[in-house]
Specification:
Layout (H helix, E strand, L loop, with lengths): L3 E5 L8 H14 L4 E5 L5 H5 L10 H5 L10 E2 L5 E4 L8 H6 L7 H12 L4 E5 L6 H9 L2 E7 L2 H4 L2 H13 L7 E8 L6 H13 L13 H5 L7 H4 L4 H16 L7
Helix pairs in contact: 1-12, 5-6
Length: 262
């Protein structure tokens, strides 16, 4: 089975993107799917969210500048089958530097090619900054599938059409003809409000084939877990946040036919 590359992106912040990256990766790893998380956000929230220290010279920046081999940047985490290339603040500079390169949209794709071709991982998941800048665009150019996290609020829906348009543009420009929208993950669902259900219903109406059945609830424990450097499966294994991400993991494995290596 070839390595499948996902990017989790949304130009809007605070929609559960990094929370989903952390917990989906942890869920897949727990199911013995060998998973690599690449943190592309200079804020490095995914890095700290799995309890990994931030150290200078350890991000993808070093490989993009040919200072280190990308395979040497992979770190083990405290969780079996979960590996990471962490982020650090130097990634903030890469936006300007990428724009000065000729093939500025495919720099990350070329950079991570050894990771994909190595066959060491079943899945690679990239967590993007909350903006459609060059880091996010590069991740889309490098991915097989885009996973969109969408908060259950109307304002969060405004950018959905924009990111789907970017996908179409990248395909039409032949930057990444293989890119597919892997699905929309509804997050921060509040069962106490009619609004959350109305937003879910509207997204289902327009994107019924793409929306995941699993809906991630708004939960205090989910918000707390990253500050303790733990995925929700480790921080609150019996809570509803853990149940939701276990369900999302099962759905992801089935939807993309992910299988552990033998």
């Amino acid at each position: 089975m070839s390595t499948k590359v996902f990017t989790i992106a949304n130009q809007k912040g605070g929609v559960g993107k990094t929370t989903t990256a952390i917990n989906l990766c942890a869920g897949l790893a727990a199911k013995k799917v060998k998973t690599l998380l690449i943190d592309l956000d200079p804020q490095a929230n995914a890095t700290s969210g799995v309890g990994q220290p931030k150290k200078e010279g350890t991000s993808l920046y070093a490989a993009l500048h040919n200072e280190k081999a990308v395979l040497d940047l992979v770190q083990e985490t405290r969780y079996t089958n979960l590996f990471i290339i962490p982020a650090e603040v130097d990634l903030a500079a890469i936006e300007v530097e990428l724009s000065q390169k000729q093939d500025y949209l495919i720099q990350i794709r070329e950079c991570i090619k050894p990771l994909v071709e190595s066959g060491d991982f079943d899945v690679i998941i990239m967590d993007c900054p909350p903006a459609l800048g060059l880091l996010s665009m590069n991740s889309l150019a490098a991915a097989d599938y885009l996973l969109i996290t969408l908060q259950c609020e109307y304002l969060a829906m405004e950018g959905l059409g924009q990111i789907l348009q970017v996908v179409d543009q990248l395909k039409e420009a032949e930057v990444n003809t293989n890119l597919e929208v892997g699905g929309v993950i509804m997050t921060m669902f509040d069962a106490r409000t009619k609004l959350s259900q109305q937003v879910v219903d509207e997204v289902k109406y327009h994107f019924k084939d793409q929306i995941f059945k699993t809906i991630i609830p708004r939960a205090v424990r989910l918000s707390e877990a990253p500050s303790f450097g733990k995925p929700i499966l480790a921080y609150d294994p019996k809570g509803r946040g853990s149940k939701a991400y276990r369900d999302l993991t099962k759905e992801t494995i089935k939807r993309f036919e992910l299988k552990k290596k033998v």
